Amino acid sequence: MQLLDASRDLAIRPIWRLGFRPFFLFGTAFALVAVLIWLAALDGHAAWQPAGGWLAWHRHEMVFGFGGAIIAGFLLTAVQNWTGNPGLRGRSLALLATFWLTARVAWLMGAPLAMVIPLELAFLPAVAFVMGRSLWRVRQRGNYPVVVVLSLLAAADALVLWGLAVGGDAVQRQGVLAALWLVAALMGLIGGRVIPFFTQRGLGRAQQVKAWPWLDWGILAGGVLLAASFATGLGLQPKSWLAGLCLLLGLGNLLRLTRWYDAGIWQVTLLWPLHLAFAWLAVAPLGLAAWHLGFLANPSLAQHALGVGAMGGLILAMIARVSLGHSGRPLEPPRAMRGAFVLINLGAAARVLLLPIAGNTALWLAAICWAAAFALFLRHYAVLLCTPRVDGRPG
């Protein structure tokens, strides 16, 4: 295995020293700005149209723009720990971040599709290639499924772009929903590893809850199957067999959460948000099962439980912890982050539970809570992400 070259790494600007730095910074800034732009567009205050229109932009960018950035930042950082080899850094990392950022600007500003599509297509396959190459070098087969899910995310993005090119809104929707449930599968895979570990470590427990591989792999396979149902269009209409699949996914995640639970998590700021986010990861497929069975009128509520509660909540909790650990700081977030974690969950509750009752008021409340949560993260972490580790080590 390669040794980290400290002198070479320390010569790089801090923001380009490891993947979490640029992608957590740019991704959270985009999460904040994109929601505010979406609100302005809904209120009729946007003076231009992005590629494909505002709805196409919103649903694509919250999954592939925001979600894609954070996924890239987390995995490009984690792979260094997994393999013991240096992660992507320096000019290569800056180039990858430039692909992501340029695609965001081009799509938002309504650039020609001949520009938008190649820029968008470049990012996720590049991340999957870097991950696959790093894992292959050390033959770390246990993490190959991560590359598989990344590759499927890239395929879902290509499906959206095909729909954009031919003017097919239904095809775009299929691709976005497939991607959203692939992100759920990835969160279940990664969360299933780190949440019990973080919980036991945060509580000072000596023994970690033993994983049940059959359950973990079954949920991953079920999540990919559910994503495939959306990619093919089957999941867009109520079906009893999909209700059964969603019910199994939701109950499986609840079972995992129950096994990890310890009452002490409520005393540790970096633990209870992880568990709440995973609870949303159980609520979302259960809500979708209810829609398939005719008990829920709008499947969008289940999709937003996943997008806002699970994805938004887990991202905020994970980046708050990862940023501290990889910058050499104690795992004690600023006190204001407690408010951020509360806000992201309030936003999810407003978007899912209040929307059928309060309509636009709930939508605005959800968006404001989301924006405020990520604004608090940026207020307390932006400088950290742009400055060297406090212990003088690379990364």
Can you tell me about this structure?
This protein is mainly alpha-helical. The protein has a single domain, classed as Cytochrome C Oxidase, Chain A, CATH 1.20.210. 75% of the residues lie in helices and 0% in strands. It has 13 helices and no strands. The chain has helices spanning 6-10, 20-42, 54-83, 90-108, 113-137, 144-166, 169-202, 213-231, 240-260, 272-292, 300-325, 336-358, 360-386. The longest helix has 34 residues, at 169-202. 49% of the residues are buried.
How far is it from the N-terminal to the C-terminal residue, by CA? 17 Å
Number of domains: 1
Proportion in β-strands? under 5%
Biggest sheet statistics = none
Mean pLDDT: 94
User: Which secondary-structure class do the elements indicate?
Assistant: mainly alpha
For the secondary structure, the number of strands is 0
Order of helices and strands: HHHHHHHHHHHHH
Pfam families: NnrS
Protein name: NnrS family protein
Keywords: Membrane, Transmembrane, Transmembrane helix
Transmembrane segments: 23-42, 62-79, 91-107, 113-132, 144-165, 177-199, 211-234, 240-258, 270-293, 305-324, 336-357, 363-386
